[in-house]
Structures are given as structure tokens and as C-alpha cells.
Amino acid sequence: MSVSAVDAKTLCLFDVDGTLTAARQKATPEMEEFLQRLRQKVKVGVVGGSDLEKIKEQLGENVVDKVEYVFAENGLVAYKDGKLLSVQNIQAHLGEDLLQEFINYCLNYMAQIKLPRKRGTFIEFRNGMLNVSPVGRNCSQEERMEFFELDKQKHIREKFVSALQKEFAGRGLVFSIGGQISFDVFPEGWDKRYCLGILEKDAFEKIHFFGDKTKPGGNDYEIYTDSRTIGHEVTSPEDTSGYVKSSSSTDQLKTLLLLGLLLIISQLRCLLL
Q: Residue 224 annotated as binding?
């Protein structure tokens, strides 16, 4: 295989927020170009907790055609080569009684929180999860950053999740803090590792995962530490592209050195004969 050939047995799988884009922002032209160049070397996929529409807002309306795999809502909505593979449904899995009990508890809890500002859409219902935001997902970018900085000091989301873990212990729910203003709630096993089960039938030899929320409690932690992936922690979109380019250059150098070594060995054998 030549150095420039596509390695169909290797997948580079990227988180979206904080990895390919700034939180809830559009990908830069440089990032889009980077992904297309990477596709000339390996298979490429993205996995995010957001629904498909939000991923489209960030990575482009035709995102399912820009990369080989798109896993929205942690893979509960899955696309391969531009075609829908599968969709899962949280209400059918958990049941209406548990859902209403959980939603009512969250609304009551948030009613007791005093914040500089509150906006709309405090609980967003998705196919594979619930997204809970104390400030409300309708906040502006400025209000988002205001809450994010306050959350760093007051640990608002962390305390909220701790209360939920205590209240709903043993009920099969998992809580994952990600992004800047919210946290996700989903059934056990429905974190970002869910997409790995879908990928198993494609028999990749290597799956490199890139994410920024890789510490315990972050929404990249489970897939980052999973034995089926090679995890890479990044801090920003710029860090992501720089990291991959550096790794790719190193791999190519190793390949060239190996080819050179094999050539030298072959020549030595000829001399000895």
C-alpha cells in the first residue's frame, strides 16, 4: 500500500463541541478542509450528544455526505455514507411514568436556583436523551458564557447532577456534563460508546477517538477510556487539527523509514549472495 492510499481499516472519530468547533459554533473553513484531507487517508466520523439538526448547524447541512459516519445523540441516530442506519427512542425504553417523574423533579429543582438570567428550553427532549439546562438553551452567546463562568465557580451543574444521582439511584439513568450550559441524561449504555456497537460490524482495526471532555463525568469519558478506541484528549478545534496532522506526519515518517530499512536489507542480501 502506498503512503497516500486510504486506510479503510482505520477510523478517526471526532466529538463535535470543543473538538471540531467552538461550543455551538460553526466549523471554520480550515476545519472543513482538514476533514476532507483526512478522508483521503482514513475513514472519518463524528459523534455528538446533540441532535442531527444542531450538528448540521455546526458542520453543514450536508454533513452526512461530508464524512463516512455521523452519530447524532451519541449514535442513537446513526448515518453511514449519507444513509440513515438506525434510530432509537428514549420514551419507549424508559416509559412515560419515569420520564414524567424525572422531568417534574428537574423543573422543581431549577425553580429553586437563582441565576443572573434564565431563558427558555430548560429541558430538551431528544430521541436518545434528555438535555437539561439550568439557564435555558435559548440563551444568547453572551449569556451562555456568563453562565459558563458562573458554573466554573459555583458548580451548578455538578450539584444538580449529584442531586439527581441520589434521587434516581438504581433507576437506570446516567448523567453526563458536557458543553457549557447543560448536561445529558440517558439510559445506561446510551453514552457515546453506543456508536461503537454500530461500528463493530465494519471491523475497523483501529478507532481513534478525539474529544475534549475526557475526565470522569465528562461526556467523552466513557468512549475515551473504552478498550475499543485509542483515546486522544484535545483542548480546542485548533489543537485537534494540529494533533492529527502531527500524528499523521509521524506515521508517514515511520512508514518511509521502514521502507528504507527494508530496501537496505534487500541490498545487503544481494551483496552477501
A: yes
pLDDT, tens only, 227-244: 999 999 999 999 888 877
Residue 259 neighbours by CB under 8 Å, 6+ apart: none
Q: Which residues of the chain, if any, have pLDDT below 50?
A: 1-3, 249-250, 252-253, 255-257, 259
C-alpha distances in Å from residue 152, one per residue of 42, 156, 176: 37, 8, 16
Could you say which of 15, 151, 191, 220 is catalytic? 15
Strands 123-125 and 130-132 turn out to be: antiparallel
- Is 65 part of the annotated catalytic residue set? no
Annotated catalytic residue 251: no
Taking CA atoms, 32 is separated from 111, 219, 239, in Å, by 41, 23, 15
Cα–chain center distance at 117:
28
β pairing state of 7-14 and 42-47: parallel
Q: What is the rounded CA–CA span in Å between residue 103 and residue 117?
A: 21
Q: Is 15 annotated as a binding residue?
A: yes
pLDDT on residue 265: 53
Angle between helices 156-167 and 141-154 (to 10 degrees): 70
Rounded CA-CA distance 118/134 in Å is 7
Residues 6+ apart with CB under 8 A from 251: none
Q: Is 269 assigned to a binding site?
A: no
Domains, in order of start, for the chain? 7-87+191-260 (3.40.50.1000), 90-187 (3.30.1240.20)
Q: Is the pTM of this model over 0.90?
A: no
Element (H, E) at 75: none
